[in-house]
Specification:
Helix content: 40-55%
Number of domains: 2
Mean pLDDT: 78
Strand order of the largest sheet: 1-2
Largest sheet: 2 strands, antiparallel
Low-confidence stretches: none
Shape: flat
Length: 89
């Protein structure tokens, strides 16, 4: 049998998951839609601290952000989708 505190925790966790999913979908809807062959990419986030707790200098962080070629595709333009279908991806 669940105690009141466990039942409350479960309820709060359920509500928190629902709010997060609603927020994520609405935030994605607020972003502009790319056209043509364009992509909307979120760049890779560079860690600001090492596992040992050393804080990395801002200049080093800036260089790493510029040098990175990794990102997460958020949205694709219409022509990108046609290309993916044609190639069977």
């Amino acid at each position: 049998m669940m105690t009141k505190s466990h039942a409350l925790e479960a309820k709060y966790e359920e509500e928190d998951k629902q709010v997060k999913s609603e927020t994520e979908s609405t935030n994605l809807d607020k972003l502009p839609d790319p056209t043509g062959w364009r992509l909307l990419v979120m760049p890779f986030a560079v860690k600001e601290k090492t596992e040992g707790g050393i804080i990395i200098a801002q200049e080093t962080l800036d260089r790493a952000r510029v040098a990175t070629q990794v990102g997460y595709v958020l949205k694709m333009g219409d022509l990108c989708k046609i290309c993916r279908i044609a190639h069977g991806d």
